[in-house]
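Running low. Invent one:
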Amino acid sequence: MLGGVFMLLKTGRYLLVLMAAAALWRCGSSPTSPSGAGVKLQGVVLRDATASAASAGLSAQSAKAGKIVVTVQENPSLSVTVSGNGTFEIQDVPSGGFTLVFSVDGVVVGQITITAVGEGTTIRIVVKIKDQEVELVEIETEDDNDDGGDQDSGGDEPKSCMINGGKVSSHIELEGNVDSGTSSQFKLRVNGNRSSGLVDVAASGASYVCNGKKGSSDCKSNLVAEAKVHVRGNLTSCDTLVASVTATEVKIQK
């Protein structure tokens, strides 16, 4: 199933990485927290992943990363050690949204925030750790309550928002690349298949942070086409064709 989804991705540079990650999910043994009926998270952690590295094998890559621990910030008891092949699984993560904290050999290297999803949902992510930073490469969601209907359309429930897990008037965090625009208003191409189209970001009132460029006096000037950004804010409107976010913070990645 995952292999089919990943083959639909338009960003070919991650294709081999994601196909290899899908294979790890299918056959890898993942450490888990106590089971329950809430939201389930499945993940793959890569170290400095590239297409060529993926084709060479991910398990050796993961072994070089040291002991990687993933903890849910809102509930530290939900904490797992990433297995030798780079996979992990956590049960009962909060459906209202949560932040994952990643540490390597006891040192926190970064965090990723996942927005609200429905109860009974499985979230699958691929994360890359590079230069002591954490980057979300891919995210997909699957409604485990769907009684065999079309998973892409959510069964008999029509999809109301083009962003998976997006709820109007709620907090949202998105990662991706700037498609066009300026530091006041730009279009965001969201990583992976989380959004079916470009997201309009109103950022005139947002604070800007340049990750890895602490000496930059004008961070906004670094927002150009193809810049990699992390956007925090509120989802002001969303339907199947258009989505708008009012940003409170824009972090320009290195």
User: Anything to note?
Assistant: Residues 15-27 form the longest helix (13 residues). Residues 1-18, 28-36, 49-63, 147-156 have pLDDT under 50 and may be disordered. The helical segments are 2-6, 15-27, 51-56, 58-63. DSSP finds four helices and 14 strands in the chain.
